[in-house]
Amino acid sequence: MDQIVYHDRYRNEDCVEKVYGDSFLRWTYGTVGGKIALAAMVKRAWFSHWYGWRMDRAVSREKILPFIQQYELDADEFLRPPDQFASFNEFFFRKLKPQARPIDPRPAAAVFPADGRHLCVPDLSRCDGLFVKGEMFDLATLVDDAELAQRYAGGSLLLSRLCPVDYHRFHFPVAGSPGPSRLINGPLYSVNPIALCQNIHILATNKRTLTQLETESFGRVLLMEIGATCVGGICQTYSTDQPIDKGDEKGYFRFGGSSTITIFEPGRIQFDDDLVEQSSQHRELYAKIGDSLGTIPKS
């Protein structure tokens, strides 16, 4: 893969992604030496914990302003100014001002759970692949539950990929009553397309968490967070004690690129046209948390 091309919903044009750590990724997943290092070190939890520890140190603050400038982030969206972060990791899982991410108010609309690049599968029983045609992971392996896999075998899936440059808090796409989060342990491979085009099964085997959300309008929705190389942790901030509203915060990722997966029961969601169109071409759609991903199908 020479370049990672995605479609920007707001600019309505194809864009080339600026990849954080591009040369390291290409070396790791594209060379013999890199693949040896991947098996021996990079996919291991200790490597990501070590890198996360580095991003927690006060000296890492020096990386914040150059990062904002290089990736053209809008600091006016931040709840706190850049000079108030004690470390790069604290900046990485920053909060945004509420008005920076308005939530689609329509009762029939579900919203993207995170800022990022999104792919959808309208019907899992007819999926011909995500990033590469014919390449798809196993649902039963992903959810680690044969009964759940059977229930959602004909359901609809949204994959949301967060780059290191993105806002790294994830939110509820619809209102409902959430259950507890279940950890499914695994390695920590990169979830960048450079890696996924070689092995899509990374998404179904990496360390991940699963939450079941009971809703009135969308049935039972599965919410998953997928860890990745250099992710210091998947942190849940929601409570199971009370119902949540659409767009409420669910949690955040510490340093690193990562992904979320949202799975709807069969017939519960009609994905938006631009999302379906780009996904049919195996091209991600860039959109932000709070914007519509789809609506309840009209009967």
From TrEMBL:
Key word Lyase present: yes
InterPro entries: PS_Dcarbxylase
Keywords linked to the UniProt accession: Decarboxylase, Lyase, Pyruvate, Zymogen
Any one biological process term the GO annotation gives: phospholipid biosynthetic process
Gene Ontology molecular functions: phosphatidylserine decarboxylase activity
Superkingdom classification of source: Bacteria
EC code(s) of this entry: 4.1.1.65
Coiled coil stretches, renumbered: none
Record PANTHER family: PHOSPHATIDYLSERINE DECARBOXYLASE, PHOSPHATIDYLSERINE DECARBOXYLASE PROENZYME 2
Protein name: Phosphatidylserine decarboxylase proenzyme
Gene name linked to the record: psd
